[in-house]
Write a structure and sequence with these properties.
The protein has 395 residues and is an alpha/beta fold. It contains 14 helices and 12 strands. Bound molecules: pyridoxal-5'-phosphate. The site of pyridoxal-5'-phosphate has 16 residues, from helix 4.
Length: 395
């Protein structure tokens, strides 16, 4: 019999929920019309898309016309950053604009910001975080300058799961904006937050928000940029004028329908988060009790209920990942994207970890499918694997 797989890498991606898959299926070969067509087949596709747009708008507490479908959160993040800055220049901006981001943003924010800086189109201010991984609101207030036109701070971190005070930062920016002519756009990358946190955009005081289907038990290759009415940005992808002229390209209807259903399920399954958190705490306590010389990275208090991130002194995270994988337990050594390189994660360096501590770290992210037996089994195998690797390395 095939050995059970224990997937603890839900921050990298999640399995598509069977309810979501079922809703998507007809849109591949029954309701396959192009949503721009005006015949009945087009209507069917368009209706599916608009229903999903409304489901997402309901979840975010915004208007459906404020929802723009993209190919994923990388596109949403890139589009927002490039779009705000491009609009500024297009409207005759004179002095180079300033963008504020945090040092632990996802690369989908950091790289476009750096690109703009390299090409002399914007200057970036990067806010440090404290050793728990948290942005200080006072630092945001201090960093805002006359030429600041965009602040982008992620809601929850993909690696260490820490949750930023988005509502309070949003409130601060709202108050500052009252007295300013050049309004600051406040954006949050909420990709990791959607499953667990309040993402009501009114509550959060945000003008823009990114999310992704595959992190919430929906399909890959579909995402959303929420853009509050009145926040204007230029297009990133130009063509036939889809998505109210702002994001061209025939819409990914099965993906959109799946994303709508996945968001619907997030609301329905809120109570699962209580048991996910209990299981997370069980694994944290077990690791601390059974394995000496470990360190939990990032705040425990302000943390996603499914995230665990430990450094295990004297071992290589990759080595441990491979040992666990041999036993069909899947974890990660950083964010999935950071795993492409052997460089220390910028997030871990930002919270003060050394290269060695950073390389000795492993992330476990639980999901709806995680059971208490899984945690018992993982702990048993983990203790053995860490002991073995420490013996080999002599540390
Ligand atoms: N932002 C965050 C916080 C993420 O965790 C990810 C995925 O790793 C992304 C953006 C990119 O999302 P996508 O895979 O939909 O492009």
């Amino acid at each position: 019999m095939k050995k059970k797989e224990i997937y603890l890498d839900n921050a990298a991606t999640t399995p598509v929920d069977s309810v979501v898959l079922k809703k998507m299926q007809p849109y591949f070969n029954e309701k396959y019309g192009n949503s721009s067509s005006i015949h009945k087949a087009g209507d069917l596709a368009r209706n599916g898309m608009e229903k999903a747009r409304q489901q997402i708008a309901t979840f975010l507490n915004c208007l459906s016309e404020e929802i723009y479908f993209t190919s994923g959160a990388t596109e949403s993040d890139n589009w927002l950053i490039y779009g705000v800055i491009d609009k500024f220049w297009e409207e005759g901006g004179k002095k180079k604009p300033n963008i504020i981001i945090s040092s632990i943003e996802h690369k989908a924010i950091i790289e476009p910001a750096k690109y703009l800086e390299k090409n002399n189109l914007a200057e970036i201010s990067i806010l440090d975080v404290n050793k728990d991984g948290l942005v200080d609101i006072e630092d945001v207030a201090k960093a805002i300058k006359k030429n600041t036109i965009l602040v982008s701070i992620m809601y929850a971190n993909s690696e260490i799961g820490v949750i930023q005070p988005i509502k309070q930062i949003g409130q601060l920016i709202k108050e500052i904006n009252i007295k300013r002519e050049n309004k600051i756009v406040f954006h949050t990358d909420a990709v990791q937050a959607i499953n667990y946190l309040n993402c009501n955009v009114e509550y959060l005081n945000v003008d823009a928000l990114s999310l992704s289907g595959h992190k919430i038990y929906g399909p890959k290759g579909i995402g959303v940029l929420y853009l509050k009415n009145g926040t204007s940005i230029t297009s990133l992808i130009r063509g036939g004028g889809h998505e109210r002229g702002l994001r061209s390209g025939t819409e990914n209807i099965p993906g959109i329908v799946g994303l709508g259903e996945a968001i619907n399920l997030v609301t329905k399954k809120q109570k699962d988060n209580v048991s996910i958190k209990k299981l997370r705490n069980k694994l944290i306590t077990g690791i601390m009790k059974d394995i000496p010389n470990v360190q939990l990275n990032g705040s425990l208090e302000y943390r996603l209920p499914n995230n665990i991130h430990f450094s295990f002194t004297g071992i290589e995270g990759e080595g441990l990942l491979i040992e666990l994988s041999e036993q069909n337990i899947y974890v990660s050594t950083g964010s999935a994207c950071a795993s492409h390189s052997l460089k220390s994660s910028h997030v871990l360096l930002a919270i003060g970890l050394s290269d060695e501590e950073s390389h000795a770290s492993v992330r476990f992210t639980l999901g709806r499918q995680t059971s208490s037996n899984d945690i018992d089994y993982v702990l048993k195998i983990l203790v053995k694997a860490v002991n073995r690797l420490r013996k080999i390395s002599g540390k």
